[in-house]
Specification:
Elements: H1 3-22, E1 30-37, E2 41-42, E3 51-56, E4 65-71, E5 78-82, E6 91-95, E7 109-117, E8 128-136, E9 146-147, E10 158-161, E11 181-186, E12 192-200, E13 211-215, E14 230-235, E15 239-247, E16 252-258, E17 265-275, E18 281-284, E19 289-290, E20 292-294, E21 299-304, E22 316-318, E23 323-327, E24 330-331, E25 345-351, E26 357-367, H2 372-377, E27 381-384, E28 391-396, E29 401-409, E30 414-422, E31 426-428, E32 435-443, E33 446-454
Parallel strand pairs: 2-8, 9-11, 21-26
Antiparallel strand pairs: 1-3, 3-6, 4-5, 4-7, 7-8, 10-17, 11-16, 12-15, 12-17, 13-14, 13-16, 18-19, 18-22, 20-21, 23-24, 23-25, 25-26, 27-28, 28-31, 29-30, 29-32, 32-33
Length: about 450
């Protein structure tokens, strides 16, 4: 046998021995395969379910071993005996009978170590596993949802987020990020609908492309949405929105704002909630007149110019989905049905989905009774800003002093009054609830009536 052949045989023998050693199996050998729960997410409580996956990589079936875990380097504070048999090659997902993970601090990082102990285990190197678990902060999570007591509820503001969330928006194919914003609310009426929109400002040369979603389950970091719990989803380059997202009676819902880019960016959110039978708006577009809606009493009031023929007006209106509208049994169509508003008109709104139900609204049209100051100077007296957050000012090019400013709710109740104001003087409205308000301005013995929106 020549030298080359001898070396070849020796190499083959070494390879065979090497594979024989690699394929060797201990008789008893348990391994912590993975840490299954709790996983990193948001809103972890101090009583999380603890699960450890264990695999029997030995040749023999085993039972009577123990599983335990500790947290942040402490002593093992939970240990349980597993009586069931784990066959060779099998995997067990063990769930502890009681939850003892001391989690719950928002933003905290925990180190949880799982341990298994088997008498006669021939490889102890795989019997322990440490997992880093992060209790993420999720934007502005409101753990105590606010209750909706007025309709619609409107909220707007500016929010800045920082994230590396590149993806197709907040939908079933995208995981949530820790920096995403979550708002929670509880519905108090049946058949409620949500319209929502989020607008992003300019972020360099990159469109922020926000996403917005409504879900019945509280989302957590790295959670995906579930199509069965989604009520509404919208995405867009600059504005994301959805309309008529259906909400069940007395349920908590979570509104999520998702961002696609790592640019710092300011967002503006507006949310409106409606009951099944609520008008979203009721206007006379031909007269540029918008109705003041009183959602508590289900009333709409419209003030039209003097001399308007109120016997043949055509209203435009919108309601949530699955509704139809009647006056004395006659179906009404937005933008085409002619109505006589000489007296108050009762609109009957019928819900077309089960359970079938109706509600009535009263629509009142009144003629504006203001005098010459409105006719001659309506464009010279303004309320600014509109919409407004905290203050409004009454501005005039012709008047230095305003005798009196009276602010009324949409239902006609006087909510604020101030006298002897200088033009341009600020009027605080921060205590007013969001909605539409009627402003009556008295100057030089005359009156001007206008409206503004409190955000």
């Amino acid at each position: 046998m020549n030298k080359t052949l001898l070396l070849t045989c020796f190499a083959a023998l070494l390879l065979l021995l090497s594979h024989t050693k690699l394929d060797a199996q201990f008789a008893k050998d348990l391994q912590i395969l993975s840490w299954s729960a709790p996983r990193s997410k948001g809103a972890l409580t101090d009583s999380e379910i603890v699960k450890i996956a264990v695999k029997n990589i030995g040749a023999e079936a085993v039972s009577g071993f123990t599983i335990g875990f500790s947290q942040d380097g402490g002593e093992t504070f939970k240990e349980e005996v597993v009586s069931q048999t784990l066959n060779a090659g099998s995997i067990m997902l063990y769930t502890f009978s009681e939850n003892f993970a001391v989690l719950g601090t928002d933003g905290a990082t925990y180190y949880i170590t799982g341990r298994i102990t088997l008498e006669g285990d021939e490889d102890l190197s795989n019997n322990e596993h440490t997992e880093e678990v992060i209790n993420y902060l999720i934007g502005d999570v409101e753990d105590e949802p606010f209750e909706i007591t007025t309709f619609p509820y409107a909220a707007s503001g500016e929010y800045v987020m920082y994230t590396n969330n590149y993806g197709p928006g907040y939908n079933i194919s995208n995981y949530m990020q820790a920096e995403d914003i979550v708002f929670a609310f509880t519905t108090t009426e049946t058949q409620m609908y949500v319209d929502a929109a989020v607008t992003a400002d300019y972020a360099g040369s990159f469109a922020p492309r926000p996403g917005i979603a409504l879900t019945r389950e509280k989302p957590s970091a790295f959670d995906k949405t579930d199509p069965d719990t989604e009520a509404g989803v919208g995405t867009g380059d600059w504005v994301a929105s959805f309309d008529n997202a259906y909400c069940y009676y007395a349920q908590t819902y979570y509104l999520v704002i998702d961002k696609w880019t790592d640019y710092s960016c300011t967002y503006d959110l507006v949310v409106n909630l409606y009951r099944q039978h609520d008008f979203k708006y009721f206007n006379f577009e031909s007269l540029s007149v918008n109705g003041a809606i009183d959602y508590e009493n289900r009333m709409v009031t419209l003030t039209v110019p003097q001399g308007t023929d109120v016997t043949s007006l055509v209203p435009t209106f919108e309601l949530p989905a699955y509704t139809e509208v009647f006056i004395d049994g006659a179906a009404q169509t937005s933008g085409s049905s002619v109505v006589d508003f000489t007296s108050d008109v009762t609109y009957t709104i019928n819900q077309t989905i089960t359970p079938n139900a109706t509600q009535t609204w009263t629509v009142s049209v009144i003629e504006d009774q203001t005098t010459d100051i409105q006719t001659n100077s309506i464009d010279k007296i303004t309320v600014s800003p509109n919409p407004a957050n905290d203050v409004i000012t009454v501005l005039s090019n012709d008047l230095n002093e305003i005798n009196k400013v009276s602010i009324y709710s949409a239902s006609g109740s006087l909510v604020l009054s101030q006298e002897n104001l200088n033009t341009g003087q600020a009027i605080a409205i921060d205590q007013l609830v969001p909605g539409i308000y009627i402003v009556q301005i008295e100057a030089n013995g005359n009156q001007v009536t206008t409206r503004f929106i409190k955000k």
